[in-house]
Amino acid sequence: MELPVDKMMSDVPDFRTHIEERIEHHQDEWREQALAEFRRNGGQPVSMPVETSNRDFSFGKDVDENWFYAVGSTRSNVTGVVTVVPDAQGRPQVGLDYQANAWDRYNWDEDKGVTIDAPGGSALSIPDGRMARLHTTGIAQEFDMAGSSSVKHYDLGGSAPNQQPLPAPDEPGREGDRTDPGREQQEAR
Which of 14, 30, 89, 167 lies at 20 to 30 Å from 65 by C-alpha? Predict the structure, then answer.
């Protein structure tokens, strides 16, 4: 299943913060490495691939039930390219083009489960072991999930870093989701 990472970042501010923290943690280091290479090669343009380490993120049931039940948790990282180009006066301009990535396997772990609140104050507990049994008998299926956000550009500044906020995720729109009025008509084609 392809994960709509822009929509995940738009819907769940904590997930967006999780991604932004990875960039903010590394941006000064990336900037300095790229500027050092720019100076070393006599002011010629530089591009340097970058990647953060993989980190786990769990969607909270109390924050967004849809993402909690649909995905649960993911591994995530940021990949991109830091570029340094000289401006008209030869001063370095540093930028980052990046994507947020998320992936996991939708599966059922024997020692986990979920409780779904039902009307009237009752609750329905579903142990993962029961769901795993559906997978082993062929009634349900575990699957891989992965996706990447749209490419974003972030200006890392000239000789001194700027303090602009990171760009917002692309507006994911309504296309294909439950609130898309043409969804059923498209599926019937």
Answer: 167
